[in-house]
Amino acid sequence: MTPQEATARIATLIEEINEHAYRYHVLDDPAISDAAYDQLMRDLEDLETRFPDLASDDSPTRRVGGPILDSFKEYRHPTPMLSLQNAFSEEEFFEFDRRIRQKLDFSSAVVYMAEPKLDGVALELVYAAGTLETAATRGDGTTGENVSANARTIRSVPLKLRSPATGSIPERLAIRGEVIILKEDFEKLNRRQEEAGEKAFANPRNAAAGSLRQLDSRITAGRPLSACMYATGLDVPGIETQEKLLALLKNLGFSTNPLARKCTGADEVLAAYHDLLDRRFDLPYEVDGLVVKVDSYDLQKQLGEISRSPRWAIAYKFPAVQETTEVMDITIQVGRTGALTPVARLSPVRVGGVEVSRATLHNQDEIERKDVRMGDTVFIQRAGDVIPEVVSVVLEKRTDAAHRFVFPKNCPVCGGLVVRPEGEAAHRCTNMNCPAQLQARIRHFAQRTAMDIEGLGDKLVAQLVERELVKDVADLYHLDHPTLAGLERMADKSAGNLIEAFERSKTRELSRFVYALGIRHVGEHIAVLLVRAFGSLEKIQTASQDDLEAVAGIGPEVAASVRDFFGEKKNLEVIARMHQAGVKPRPPEPEEIETSEKPLSGKNVVLTGKLTSMPRSKAQALIKRMGGKVTSSISKKTGLVIAGDNPGSKLEKAKKLGVRVIDENEFLSLSAD
Ligand code: IVH
After folding, report:
1. How many domains does the chain have?
2. Is 292 in the pocket of ligand 1 (CB under 6 A)?
3. Which of 70, 172, 522, 633 is deepest in the core (most CB within 10 A)?
């Protein structure tokens, strides 16, 4: 065969193989047998071995993985990858729909796309001129890990896009979706793992996430991953609805979910939800709810987002899955505030695809109310991502051997006195220096959603605390290489990696830092609200109770807790020592501030004419409180004009420039949000 002939044959083979792969993965309608497909692949491999110069990077034979990496490179998403708010009941879902209609001032039904919520791990695929350029994990939403080599091994990830039937391939695409493992593939994978003497995976999601984050892409290539795409990170010309996007994705060669349904109004969504719920266990993949999205991109933009979740979408979750199992023992866990939480140690059982061996019993009152005893058979449930909990006892199964749990008088970790403060449900260890509290505080600080200090696992934290190398979180940043390398299970390399992880954590987003501090009642969401409202740590630190309570979403209890935390000298010292060590959290990006909750954020607003319901000064104050800036003259930079009675020439000018104009009533309803 001449090189010319080989070139032509290779091109034909690639085209044929890609077509068959498309029919198989996307259309779910294969035209040839697996054996015939494998033969085509072998023919192609043969030719590429004989003519190595003709082997291209986009060849389907290249899905076998490549060299081993030291670490993943960071990848900044072209636009943030958001997460979703959850609805756990019909009421919560209807509330979502009501909010949307109110915001949009809609009296009629909203058109939604309702899509199965796949239980996998999010992936972004970036294409330049139709060729896969980068694949990245979600990471913290802003920056993920570049897992291109791994993603290229996934058969349903197109290396090159197909030309759509109409239109052309957009120049630059950032397509998002979910990497999953089919239930059937998961069972096979686990059998294989066990045969090879490896640990079985707890559930398909963990297996998918672990497989996607292998430094050796050959391992990934051996895992049965599938990718199903459902979103875009960049505007796509000519695509104005989610429905159109899904159709385009399918045309371009991506695998999309065939069960996505267009629904008009909340009732239709509800029907779709129940249909899917009924089929849930018959589906070939795990689904944990329905993602409901406003179909129109224009309306999505109008709705915007709040603390990293879009207002235009929600995850309407399926009910928690319940199982029964036996309580082997009840033990006590000491949290970072010293609260003692009783935990039921269970005979391991799978609940909703996850193996569960412990469940929280919350506190003494709960144990008594549910009358849970050691040796009992109990119902446990996993609600979404929260810790599994004991729901109730199966009394018919209680034997004489079942015995009650006695709450300890002393902390099981440090022996400190345990008290139950008046009016509180929790027992607390009163020893401020209890190592269990310190360990929990450090684990909280280092966790993925906080400072994300990779490699600082529970065992290491325990060692650092036991050896008194770390007495507060600031001490972490003063640990040196020899000290770390001298710890159990640590070597030169892992110590180096850890030091690097500490370094990387120094510039985490400010909201994560605020969350990491472990202020009571300040979860991830509240931390974001604080940072958005005040912009810097100094300002949060010095904010008064009133300033804090003025922030939407922050009540008196949270505000008092923030005040208490920063009123404590010891806490300020710890923060100062972190600053000295170079911890410099990143303040929010301007675009994050813009998307804040306030309806006029970042907008220049001009008032013209006379308002009837309030004096001008009050309107100006209101605009400011809504995040807007009051300006007097109309220009291209004007974002909104509020026109009262007898508006005059400004109104004319605004109209000429195409600036949005609203009347007093609209202004009032906007401010009521
Ligand atoms: S849309 C801003 N659609 O659920 C909208 N997400 O809890 C972002 N997920 O991070 C996501 N199926 O990993 C969307 N059909 C679907 C989905 C889906 C699963 C995951 C996704 C996301 C998470 C949010």
Report:
1. 6
2. no
3. 522
Pocket test for ligand 1, best of 96, 121, 179, 230 (most atoms within 8 A of CB): 230
Secondary structure (DSSP) of 376-434? -EEEEEE-TTSPPEEEEE-GGG--TT-B-----SB-TTT-PBEE--TT-SSEEE--TT-
Same domain, 111 and 182: yes
Q: Which atom of ligand 1 is nearest to the CA of 257?
A: 15
- Please name the residue whose Cα sits nearest to atom 18 of ligand 1: 117
Q: Are residues 477 and 514 in the same domain?
A: no
Residue from 113, 118, 180, 286 to probe ligand 1 pocket by mutation (most atoms less than 8 Å from CB): 118
- Flag whether 148 is in a domain: yes
Containing 180, the helix (H) or strand (E) segment is strand 172-180
- Contact criterion met (CB below 8 Å) for 204 and 120: yes
Centre of ligand 1 from the C-alpha of residue 141, in Å:
12
Q: Are residues 98 and 193 in the same domain?
A: yes
Q: What is the mean pLDDT of the chain?
A: 92
For residue 656, is pLDDT > 50?
A: yes
Q: Is 117 a catalytic residue?
A: yes
Among 419, 450, 470, which residue terminates a domain?
Answer: 419
* Residue 424 falls inside a structural domain: no
The pLDDT of 451-469, averaged and rounded, is 95
Looking at per-residue confidence, does 655 or 342 come out higher?
342
Distance (angstroms) between ligand 1 centre and the Cα of 122 equals: 7
At residue 595, does pLDDT exceed 50? no
Domain range for 642: 604-672
